[in-house]
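Translate sequence into structure tokens.
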Amino acid sequence: MKRSTLFLACCIGLMLFASCKKDPVKPTITLLQGGDYLTENAQVYLNESYTIGFTATGEKLTSVEATLTQNGTFLYTTALTIDEQPTYTDTFSIHMEATGTVTITCKVTDAAGQTASASMNVYCEEKPNAKFVGSFAGNALATGTMDVNLVGMEPIHQEITDREVPVIIELHEGLTVNEVVGTCTFEDRVIDCKGTVEGDVVTFEAINDVMLFPYDLGGFTVSPELHLTYNIKGVLNGDKLTLDGTGTGNGDINLFIYNGTVDVDITAVGGELDRQ
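Result follows.
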């Protein structure tokens, strides 16, 4: 065979070999929808966190990133590194930091630098406050301790165990969207109260109370005046308001030869009140 013919045959062989070489497979990425994952056009709320689910495929995947934008303006990006796997399923936790329509884009990259992306839009707004306006009534439970110290007597320690306290709370809208005002009635004592609302939680400012606390000294009863301070939160669930908090107080005893102090430490105040 002539040299020119051999050279031509080699060139044709190389061309055929090159044409048979496998092209790199481009990666793909799919956003998982529903369940615990965000979906297209979902309603989300400012300063809340959400989960994006995705599945990516390809040859030697190296990373996936999630980017949030709004009207083309970059908000933030978070990324995951992949150890050159052919398929990868995972989640991102994202935090909503802007109101309005937010575009979420997930992009996968492989070892060859090829990319693929998938996007969805969600609508973000400030979370509306729960409406605490109304009347709630029921029993709260007080658990704690009482210590009595009298001159000339041994100190007295008494446990307060799940003492039921009738409670009525009347709440009205305050001067701002995040404020409620009203009254709290503990047994027969009506006390002004005010709270700040965030989501479905109202946090009351410290509530000061004065009550007579009957106590049996053995043969006769004393009723020291106790000054109490409550720090209470309420969580609204449908038509029920669940209370939780703490209370502390003290008072003086002055009766005949008895002089001393009473200290009350309520370690938990709780109860589920029904809307009336």
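Note: Residues 16-20 have pLDDT under 50 and may be disordered.
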